[in-house]
C-alpha cells in the first residue's frame, strides 16, 4: 500500500507538471503573437522591412517540465525510501549518446542530507545543458560566454542566451558547440 501510494503521488505530480507546461506554452504563444504584432507595427511606423517572423518571438523553450518532473521523482524516491525501499539511481542515454562522455558507474541513492561534497567540487561529467548552467558557445570560430535557458530539446540541441547580447540573439546549439565556462 505504501509503495502504491508513492506511485500515485508521482502520477498526480506529473499531471500537474503537464498542466503547468500547457498553460505556459499557451501563454508563450500568446506573448509571441503580441510581440510579433508590436514588431510589425514598429517596423511599419519606421518604414523598415519586416525581416523577422512569428517564430523568432517564440520563448516556449522556457516551458519545460524537467525541473518539475525531477521534483516529482525526488518526492517518489523519498516516499519509497520511507516505505523501507532502497533506490539505486541509474542514467540511460536515449539521444545523442555518441556525443556524451561516459558516465561513472551508478551508485546507490543517497539523500542530500547524507551527502558530503567538498565546496566547489563538481561531477567530472556533469551535463552542460541544464537551465542556468554557465557555458561557452562556439560561434564563427570564437567562444562566447552564455547561459543555458532551458532543458535539452528533443533534437539534442541546447537553448542558450549569449551574455551581454539581446534575447533576439538567443539560439539552440548542438553539443559540439558547447563547453564548460573557463573561468
From TrEMBL:
InterPro entries: Chromo-like_dom_sf. Residues 156-183 are annotated as: Disordered. This is Uncharacterized protein. It comes from Azospirillum isscasi.
